[in-house]
Amino acid sequence: MANFRIICRRLHRDISYLFSGMLLVYAVSGIALNHKDTYNSQYDIEVRQYSIEQPLPARENMNHTFITEQLLEPLGEADNYTKHYFPEEHVLKVFLKGGSNLLVDTGSGQATYESVRRRPLMGSLSRLHYNPGRAWTIFSDLFAVAMVVIILSGIFMLKGKHGLWGWGGIELLVGIAIPLLFILL
Fold it and tell me: What is the reported pTM?
């Protein structure tokens, strides 16, 4: 039994070190996803309202050149124009690369610019929770198996009052009970 505990200790140590980075990534991105009602981990979205001071041309004269030079250039978005249309008689909507857009009331000159920027690090990390492909599925399955090995080796690593038949067993049962309570409540 002593050799079994030594093997459990070594497995627990080595696999834990190997997968600690992955656990850290999952933990950080998981926290971000848990709060997606107040924090968008994928995109940084900024909405800015302002007034266009210059007179705007009639709808039929509102062309690509005017839109890029007069409306998008001040926003630094001239190179990101994709298309525009009029959803209502006096409302111009301009679509930009990356999901940003500009909405202009051509009658009053009131404009709303919505800037959408991808969060490079957090967006990539949280994307892993959405299973981005077959290779990730295979890695995730290996990761899950490694977590089971870490758990089982940890359970059998200690003996006596700190092991499975002592305080460790009580903590294990509490750890199982907590998620079950959330499921049942």
Answer: 0.63
Q: What is the pLDDT of residue 182?
A: 92
Contact partners, residue 153, CB within 8 Å, separation at least 6: 7, 8, 9, 11, 12, 15
**Same domain membership, residue 50 and residue 28:** no
* Closest CA relative to residue 101, chosen from 90, 112, 87: 112
Q: How confident is the model at residue 19 (pLDDT cuts 50, 70, 90)?
A: confident
Q: Looking at the domain assignment, is residue 26 inside a domain?
A: yes
Hey, which of 6-10, 57-61, 82-86, 175-179 has the most confident mean pLDDT?
Answer: 82-86
Q: Is residue 178 part of a domain?
A: yes
Q: What average pLDDT does the segment 49-76 reach?
A: 92
Structure tokens at 99: 């999901």
d(C-alpha 70, C-alpha 108), whole Å: 16
Q: Which domain holds residue 80?
A: 43-118
AA letter at 165: W
Domain count, the chain: 2
Q: Is residue 111 part of a domain?
A: yes
